[in-house]
Amino acid sequence: MNRHLPIFILFLTSLLFSCQREIEDTPLDMGLDFQPIEIGLYWIYEVDETIVYGENDAEHSVYFIQDRIIDYYFNEANEQTYIVQRSKSEDQLNWQATTSYTLLLRNHTLVKTIANQPIVSLVFPINSGISWNANTYRNEVEDNFEYLLEEEDKLRVNQENSDDLVTYRDIRFEGYQRGIGLIEKYEEVLTYCSRNDCLGDQLINSGVIRHLNMIAHGED
């Protein structure tokens, strides 16, 4: 019998346990850094917007908005809730506060609440192809969002992609980047003329086309 065999088996067993511990100790990448949340963080976006009021009646504008995390509190469920103040500017010199919304982490989701309407913006861990009901915490019909990993550090959330070519068009998505947060948001929500003389012509009757592109970010 090979006297070195027991030593070899002991070494192999030790190696296997060591590898197992290393795998178990490796933290799961949840992707939380796709949306950092901390007081003082801010993001500035250039907004290209077209609002359609009626046939041959539209208004186009370019302006800037700034989102800044200014404070936090604990809600009734003892969840740490961050307050984001949104300001608007025409020149990036004079800013006017327009509204605020909140962000909080709940059950492996990021919940964004605007005008008392909570939307599940992200779910964790982040993986391409995962879909979820963005209205989980609202008494509304199911609205499924889906992940698309464009690059290792860039993420796209497809929120809606519908166009019946007759009555409406609804295309919405958001883009996120690791370590930064929301870098892009696109909305194209339109209704087409449905009169007999224009049905199917895709003549825009009303709606909005809005594109936000992040141009700066940082921390105060």
Shape: globular
CATH topology term: YmcC-like fold
Strand content: over 45%
How many beta strands in the DSSP annotation? 12
User: Given the structure, what is the number of helices?
Assistant: 1
**CATH level 1 name:** Mainly Beta
Q: Would you list the SSEs in sequence order as H and E?
A: HEEEEEEEEEEEE
Strand order of the largest sheet: 6-5-4-3-2-1-12-11-10-9-8-7
Largest sheet: 12 strands, antiparallel
> How many domains?
1
How would you classify the helix and strand content by structural class?
mainly beta
As residue ranges, the low-confidence spans are 7-12
Distance between the termini: 71 Å
Question: What share of residues is helical?
Answer: under 10%
- What radius of gyration results from the CA coordinates? 24 Å
Mean pLDDT: 90
CATH architecture grouping = Beta Barrel
Short description:
The chain is mainly β.
Description:
- With 220 residues, this protein is mainly beta.
- The chain has one domain: YmcC-like fold (Beta Barrel).
- Helices cover 10% and strands 57% of the residues.
- The protein contains one helix and twelve strands.
- It is globular, with a radius of gyration of 24 Å.
Topology:
Layout: H1 5-25, E1 41-54, E2 57-74, E3 80-89, E4 96-106, E5 109-114, E6 117-123, E7 131-133, E8 144-151, E9 154-163, E10 168-177, E11 181-192, E12 204-219
Antiparallel strand pairs: 1-2, 1-12, 2-3, 3-4, 4-5, 5-6, 7-8, 8-9, 9-10, 10-11, 11-12
Please supply descriptive tags for the structure shown above:
220 residues; mainly beta; YmcC-like fold; twelve-stranded antiparallel sheet; 1 helix; 57% strand; globular
